[in-house]
Design a protein that fits this description.
There is one protein chain. This protein has a four-stranded antiparallel β-sheet with strand order 7-8-6-9. The protein is built from seven helices and nine strands; from the N terminus they run H-E-E-H-E-H-E-E-H-E-H-E-E-H-E-H. Helices cover 36% and strands 24% of the residues. The protein starts with 19 loop residues before the first helix and ends with a helix. It folds into two domains: 116 residues, CBS-domain, CATH 3.10.580; 85 residues, 2-Layer Sandwich (VC0802-like). By secondary structure, it is an alpha+beta fold.
Length: 219
Amino acid sequence: MNIDQLISPLVPTLLPGDTGSHALELMEETALAELPVVLEESYVALVQEHDILDGNKPGEMLSAGSFLNYKPAIAASSHPFEGMRIMHQMNLSVLPVIDHEHKYIGSVTKDKLLVYMTENSGIDNPGGIIVLEIPPRNYTLYEIARICENEDVIILNLQVHTGDRGMLEVTLKLNRSSLDAVVSSFERHSYRVKEVYGDENKKDDITDKYNLLMNYLNM
């Protein structure tokens, strides 16, 4: 799926001749912190709310200041994951989409990309989560998948990032909430299970409450 399929019709555009005040009004109406500037179908720049406020001259035309120097964009043929990466790195709520001729096609919003990520990454499916802590040299996706497969568990989503001390934290979203068997299997294969979110946690809560009750009755 290309990112141009996620373009939002709710993002208005500005002209270089529009004033900062007009841009701020549109931003307030749409609850967006950035808006694209477009001239004759060509993408010109992305104007940010804080730049207009810091400029102290909201009555001036956008073209009169330095507002048109900021031009983040993404190609229409890019994947939504790339759009999310750019928006996260540049802290954007709006990302203009352009074609190979730099023509403005539309804009995607962070909210729409987040919905896509949630619906297409397995995150919204029922199931538990296991976080493994692995030295980088020991990371083997094949082995992790094999352990899950041996326990008849499907990996719906897998995320990897570098945590403390240079260790890899591998987050597995699985199709089961009962994780005792697969956790035990990982531990048998010398994996450090850092965190577990599923029925095992519920069982621990019940055990803790039971122990507290027994301690109270024995007082």
